[in-house]
Specification:
This protein is an alpha/beta fold. The chain contains 5 helices and 14 strands. It has helices at residues 18-32, 52-63, 88-91, 164-168, 199-202, and strands at 2-5, 37-40, 68-71, 96-98, 106-109, 114-118, 140-146, 148-149, 161-162, 174-178, 184-186, 193-195, 204-210, 215-221. The chain has a 6-stranded mixed β-sheet. It has a 6-stranded mixed β-sheet with strand order 5-6-7-10-12-11, with no helix packed on it. A two-stranded parallel sheet has the order 8-9. α1 packs parallel to α2 (52-63). Bound molecules: manganese (II) ion (MN). Residues 42-43, 74-76, 146, 179 line the site of manganese (II) ion.
Length: 225
Amino acid sequence: VVAHTSDLHLGGSWRNGEELAALSSVLVAAARSAADVLVLAGDIFDSNRVPATLVDRASKLLEDFSGETVVLPGNHDPATREAVYRLQALADVPRVHVIGVDVPDTVRLPHLDIEIWGRAHLDYVDMEPLAEPGRRAARWRIAVAHGHYVRGPHDHHRSWRIYDHEIDAADADYVALGHWDLPQAVGSGRIPAYYSGSPLVARTINIARLTSARVEVTRSPLDIA
Ligand SMILES: [Mn+2]
């Protein structure tokens, strides 16, 4: 069972702490669904300059989740030298794996026979979030990408573009997308590809259940005020 969310933007309106409450409700919902893996598809922090106290509190929340957490840095929290993900508080949390920081592109979880591939944002400039995904080396494969799904020619001026043919070529059982605030299914339909939306907007997280017969994707509601 894979839980998926994105775009928490922790620190974006840090005064009232509602994003931390949202993270907490994400972890509760993931645990309620018995998620083995939680995928955080970018822009988890609003910037790499958020207060250390916020990082400490987020780290403590993540530490309490019993599954594995896989983070893909997005365009707001890229894996630069000063990335929030290199701070000790976060680096010390067991079972948290950050693509582009802890591993170049693939988190391998042999006990679940699953791998999570992604291309981290490494700086603030345009890149191809779903280019050159390679081939799977485990029974299950999740591709995670943070960018803008191209619906037509009117999207060609956007940065961080994601195309149908790239989703189809990702050799994945589920494609976990981030960057959009609203939850949405995208792609040609050949491979399940979904934006989770931001927890504070969607009020849900995505749950992908991988079984030998099919991949079932649902949205699990969050308990947030
Ligand atoms: Mn973004």
